[in-house]
Structure formats: C-alpha cells, structure tokens
Amino acid sequence: MKNIDVCLSPDLLHLHKINNSIVVVTDIFRATSCMVTGFAYGVKSIIPVASVEECKTLQNMGYVAAAERDAQKVEGFDLDNSPFSYMDERLIGGKIAMTTTNGTLSISKAKTDAVKVIVGAFLNLAAVVNHLKNQPYDVLVLCAGWKGRPNLEDTLFAGAVVDALKDEYFVAEDSAILAMRTYQQAKNDMLGYLANSSHIRRLQGLGINKDISYCLQNDLYDVLPVLRGNELVIH
Amino acid sequence: MKNIDVCLSPDLLHLHKINNSIVVVTDIFRATSCMVTGFAYGVKSIIPVASVEECKTLQNMGYVAAAERDAQKVEGFDLDNSPFSYMDERLIGGKIAMTTTNGTLSISKAKTDAVKVIVGAFLNLAAVVNHLKNQPYDVLVLCAGWKGRPNLEDTLFAGAVVDALKDEYFVAEDSAILAMRTYQQAKNDMLGYLANSSHIRRLQGLGINKDISYCLQNDLYDVLPVLRGNELVIH
C-alpha cells in the first residue's frame, strides 16, 4: 500500500525520504492559492525562485515578476501576493516569475529529490486528490509554514488531503495523523478555527480579510500546477 | 504579558529565542515519565547525557546507568526505559546517568540558552503548571518527538500545559494553538486518540502496553525535576 505523510515545515524536510514520493507543496496564505488562481485565469507558466535577486533578473528578461517578503509586495515588482492580482486578463498566456517568503522556497527544497512536485491549495483540493488517487507513488504534503515554523492553515490543508486519501494510502506517521485530526476538527468552520492564528493576525494587520476568505474555499478551480524542470505548468 | 510557545521538534529549536524562557522538555514515551517517576521514588539526581559513550563513562565512575536506543535498553546498562524500572528501593538516594533516543538530546539542546530547563510529563503536569504560574519568564514547551519528527503524545502534553496557562500567558504562535486544540480534542480519551500513533505501535510491538497507560496518568507525583548545571534534581 502507498504511504501518505505530512511534513509540517520545510525545516523538517531532511527527515523525509522523498525519492519515491510526489510532493504536494502548500502555502495557503497565499503563494499556492495565487498560483492556482493564476493558472485558472490563463497564466501559461510560473517560475518559482528562492531569492528576490533571481526574480529581478527574470523581470529584466521580460517575465511578469511577483515578489513578496513578510506578506508584502517588494518594491519594483509587478504583482503582489494577493490572489486577486492574478485575475487579470493581461496575464493570459503570460509567464510569471515568483518569489515568496515561504512557498517558493519549499518548492525549491523539494524539487531535487521528489518524483514530482505539484502545487496544492483549498482552491484546487479535488484536483490534487483526484490526481493522487491514480498514481503509484507515495505522497508527502509539504507545508510551507512561516519562516520555518509550522502554521495552522497549511496543516489544515495537509489534513484535508490525508483525510481524502486515508482509505487508499497508509497513514503511518504522527504528523499525518495530527494534520488529519486537526482538519476533521476544523473543517466545518475553518475561518473560526484560524481566528487566532499568527498569520491571520499578520494578514488582518495588512487589511486583506478578503484574501483570507477567498483562500479557504474548496474546489473553485480544476487545475493542477506541476513542476516541469524549473517551471510550473498545468498538468 | 508573558508568552507561551511550543516547539514540536528539537530540529526546530533554532527558530526559537529562549534566552528569556523557561524550557519544559517533554518525552512522554518514556524518558521524562521515567525521570519524574525516579524522583518520586527517591532518586537524588539524574545526569542526562546525549551519547551512549558518555553514559558508559559515568557508569564506570559508579553511576547507575540507563541507556535506551530505538525504544530498547542498550546491552550492558543497568536500567531500561520503563518507568517501572525506576520504582526500585535500591535507587533511593542514588545518582543516575541516562541517555535516550530523544529526551536527553532535547535537554542537551535547550540547556545552553534557556533561563531554566524543567522536566514535564503527565505524571507531574500540575507541578509543572503551578511552578510556571509563579515566575516572570516566557515559556517554551519543547517536544522531544521521535528522531526529529513531531509526535502525538508530546504534542498532547504541550497542549495540556498551554491549556492550563492560557489565561495567564499570551498564546501567540500557531504551534501552541495547534497543540492546545489537539489536547482539548483528545483529553477525555488520550489512549483512544493515540491508538494509531507511530510510537504506540512501536511500543506495543515491544509488549509494553502497561507503560503506555501509566505514562498517560495526570498528576501522580508532585515533583518538579529541574536542571542545575549538568544534573537534574528536584526543585
């Protein structure tokens, strides 16, 4: 039987063997929610890069560039980290370069060893789950967290994936059980469950409650971003 | 207001500033449960060491030596990692040297920077909580986990401490909220909640169900082990 596991922080990724695994990277607030939204609205590809400098270089080469640090847009870039910025017809068919505090770093960390890296958010939960049901590999859900620390929203998403796949995969490890039970506890009122989370407070301070509610919606889009080489494209 | 936070794995300790914190180290199955039991039964001091070699050196110097790796006693040592081994009148007034897979390593990691390191288990939960209520520092509960991975039982204990102190401390970080809510979800049937955990399965394979039930009992002993220099003694 295939295994499904959860890594609560990229700083714990070294503990996981992922050379037989599909890694689902998630950063609910807001990197992977932005990516899914962008593809749903017609973006052609997204290159996730770890540093602001690399992102700048790609911008100079003609990419639309999105850089976020500490939940805010970095000066001189084209897009911020709100999913609503990705609902823009000027981006249709476009190529985006993106760097964020946590999400793109997690993708960089996973891509060397994993069988495949896909991008997950509540917005494309069913697309992620359906894809995983029909493949032969183990699964690791990698939570981007916040600067190395586990967070509630990514843990909830990881739990949603485990919960949906628990009959087809072996749920062996405590992090996966913890995430699944947390999701089961919270699923009927995720916004309420997250009310006191550190990142919700950080984002509310920036006045983006609209983003929060948006990112917690299930299955808005049937798109599955997957990493091919250094580029995310639709599967 | 003082802060209380939780570190779900010693591999994440580098993310926490603990120079104004009391660190509560917990390793429910079974290192810190053994320590609390030992002190309750009259042990005078316990030196936690990180390696089997250091433990052997102290044994040769006359200490009663306890070494566990992968949940089993290492050959040539005096005590295994069952709390029932510490209910022995030959240990009254004795000095013990101890090394375990996760628990003693966590103590070693925390001791350099923390204001104070104390040892917590369900067996002395009230003693830990009462001590923390009456001091001016921040608190970090450090879960020993299993070889760097978070586990359910230590997370539950961390949540029990946060839950008991939530009116007197600021619960700011997601790991602390996650642990507290997990404890609230599980507290009426911790054994049931843990039924599928990885370490429970590991221990059950070794036939030590008795240890598991024992370690999940609250407030059996009013003792608080605290690190003084390199030695744990009763506060």
Automatic annotation (TrEMBL), chains A, B:
Spans traversing the lipid bilayer: none
Reaction(s) this enzyme catalyzes, per UniProt: (2R)-O-phospho-3-sulfolactate + H2O = (2R)-3-sulfolactate + phosphate
Keyword Magnesium listed: yes
Pfam family, one: 2-ph_phosp
GO molecular function: 2-phosphosulfolactate phosphatase activity; magnesium ion binding; sulfopyruvate decarboxylase activity
Magnesium is among the record's keywords: yes
SUPFAM superfamilies, per database record: ComB-like (SSF142823)
Alphabetical list of InterPro entries matching this protein: ComB-like (IPR005238), ComB-like_sf (IPR036702)
Cofactor needs: Mg(2+)
EC number assigned by the record: 3.1.3.71
Keyword terms: Hydrolase, Magnesium
Family recorded in the similarity comment: Belongs to the ComB family.
Protein name: Probable 2-phosphosulfolactate phosphatase
Naturally occurring in which organism (per UniProt): Lacihabitans soyangensis
